[in-house]
């Protein structure tokens, strides 16, 4: 405990770090306050709880979605736009060229992402107003309400995007990820209280077991997020004047889960399509009714089986488009590096690709298990709200953002010659000698 207090004092003794932490807390407070401001013209007492896909979005937005807040769409349109641009940079040569233009290219992509965010917000806002706000909840002229609400929702998303960028620039951690994480964590205290009260004194032991199970699940996700396969790289010695450069051994850290949370997001998006398509023919086909009811139930074995298979496939797909063995091999060759026992060039690329395939397979299975754990937790008797913290996108985002933030704080401490936050062990990425960024 004494060491922990000393670490906190060291953190706030660094002026830049102290200012960044205060800025981050201030921006997050603004975001949370905005999530409670209801759209003008809405009677919040007439609003119900978000269900299905809307319930999932409500988890990411900290309840702003179900409250018809001015931040009801939050940062989600920006994330959708970012994903679209990321895929375009892989598939379309024009965007590939733009990405290679350096800082000017990144600025163009950022500007396109912002414009696309507005377009997506307008589309999602229209659907949101039609699907989630009942007519009896609107207390002003419906036409005027929809026009005003669309403007406010779009402005709210742009403001959230601005908050995220400000957190990244003047705060600590990745701003967009921090906004999502704070929305998820905001629900945790309430779900804990609800779960404890639901179990009561008679179920106190069961509640303790649930907390212990959650602890081990979180530790497993941390292991999945941090696990890397280090590939040794040797650099040739170079003599410049009277000094010898190179000759040291470094490592390429290939992550077991290089794709992060993206496979779950892609799979989750597609999992809503069967039920939506089946609803079109539900009046004329018994098969459509069966498909619709099956894939609307996140607890059904059919839903979870298809969900897990899609996550495994998307993990390989996203790893293939984000980690390029040919580029890694070319960079190594250009810098005079080589993997001991492997020839530079194509053999190195094939060697790295082979390692990626071997570590991605178990990583994809583990990711699929994490994704469907909330369903098993619900079947085991955990309330549906609390079970969301046992896995899925929510847990992966929380763990990833917290580890990234701790890594940045640790870097500040070590730069100022303070002892790190962890007495033993290291946060991955802090002090590894990576041969390729």
From TrEMBL:
Short name of one Pfam family: SecY
TM annotation in the entry: 21-39, 70-92, 112-131, 143-164, 171-189, 201-224, 260-281, 301-323, 365-383, 389-406
Membrane topology: Multi-pass membrane protein
Similarity remark: Belongs to the SecY/SEC61-alpha family.
Protein name stated in the entry: Protein translocase subunit SecY
Quaternary structure and interacting proteins, as annotated: Component of the Sec protein translocase complex. Heterotrimer consisting of SecY, SecE and SecG subunits. The heterotrimers can form oligomers, although 1 heterotrimer is thought to be able to translocate proteins. Interacts with the ribosome. Interacts with SecDF, and other proteins may be involved. Interacts with SecA.
Purpose of the protein: The central subunit of the protein translocation channel SecYEG. Consists of two halves formed by TMs 1-5 and 6-10. These two domains form a lateral gate at the front which open onto the bilayer between TMs 2 and 7, and are clamped together by SecE at the back. The channel is closed by both a pore ring composed of hydrophobic SecY resides and a short helix (helix 2A) on the extracellular side of the membrane which forms a plug. The plug probably moves laterally to allow the channel to open. The ring and the pore may move independently.
Cross-referenced InterPro entries: SecY, SecY/SEC61-alpha, SecY_CS, SecY_dom_sf
SUPFAM superfamilies: Preprotein translocase SecY subunit (SSF103491)
HAMAP family: SecY (MF_01465)
PANTHER family in UniProt: SECY/SEC61-ALPHA FAMILY MEMBER (PTHR10906)
Record localization: Cell membrane; Membrane
Main location: membrane
NCBIfam families, A to Z: 3a0501s007
Keywords recorded for this protein, A-Z: Cell membrane, Membrane, Protein transport, Translocation, Transmembrane, Transmembrane helix, Transport
